[in-house]
Amino acid sequence: MSRKTTRYPVEKTNSLWQLYRTVSFWKVAKVFMVTQLARFTPSFRLKNWLYRTFLRMEIGETTAIALMVMMDVMFPERIKIGRNTIIGYNTTILAHEYLISEYRLGDVIIGDEVMIGANCTILPGVTIGDGAIVAAGTVVHKDVAANTFVAGNPMQVVKDARE
């Protein structure tokens, strides 16, 4: 199961060197400031309001995003988080990848009542189904089925929803 990303080839220099050809400097500056404020905000309501209002993210009701969570700085509007979900401390959610000869963009969709442990990395183009559990420290590099428990790097299914 591969991630759902769109590839954009670049020439001459690596894609990150060409960053401001793909996204506005002012957008990155605004998103960085809002994200940094939200990372340290202890209020879930205020944090969710900042993400919804200034970053155009979809975040469901009663979703709790812990301290130090790092949202994608370039394309946060491509992140959708369902209702009553927990995103653990210091997790990083990416909607982009800048590589040597291309960059990739992909939506990240996190379902309802999902539990994501601390220090996880969620890569672009993945969907995490409703009721899934992602153990602390997991690198989510492919889709996670609803009601499935995954862990590790590389990510492995610990308990399948069909069991």
Explain this structure.
The chain has 163 residues and is α/β, with parallel strands linked by helices. It has one domain: UDP N-Acetylglucosamine Acyltransferase, domain 1 (3 Solenoid), CATH 2.160.10. 20% of the residues lie in helices and 27% in strands. The chain is built from three helices and 17 strands. It has a six-stranded mixed sheet. Strands 2-5-10-13 form a four-stranded parallel sheet, covered by helices on one side. A hairpin with a 4-residue loop joins strand 16 and strand 17. Helix 2 packs antiparallel against helix 3. The protein is globular and about 50 Å long. 34% of the residues are buried. GO terms for molecular function: transferase activity. It comes from Shouchella lonarensis.
Task: Give a concise summary.
Pfam families: Hexapep_2 (PF14602). The chain is built from 3 helices and 17 strands.
